[in-house]
Amino acid sequence: MVLNRLVSRVQRTLLALAICCGISVHSGAVWAAVPAGFTNELVVGGLNQPIDMAFLPDGRALVLLKDGEILIVDVAALPPTAAPYMTITDLYNVGEQGLLAIALDPDFANNDFFYVYYSKASTWMLRNARYKHLGKTRDLASEILVW
Could you give the C-alpha distances from 82 to 61, 86, 147, in angstroms and in order? Predict the structure, then answer.
């Protein structure tokens, strides 16, 4: 079960990098050449260390950058647009630390909750916080420390 979650996590991360950086991905493997029937298309470029992403029900994506910034990307717009969504402050961003993961609540359609996992600089601890999504931003006062 834990291994399945880890593999799924790695596949999601590779897919996020593929979408953000224009890398072709198939079954967790990065291809040197695009397979027949596929095209390699850069959706959003110029991002500094994209780490994870979550697709909202409306098709937009929340894209995490390691340095603490979260962008909201409208991949359906022509051209696709990326706008600031939120920034995690008090972030320890060295080596394998920083803004690490995002997940939508299983009941997101009803409660608009999402979770962000990051390393907090002032405590030197990993932190999982819950926020409420408000369309183009998040509710600052909604932060709940989960772990």
Answer: 9, 12, 29
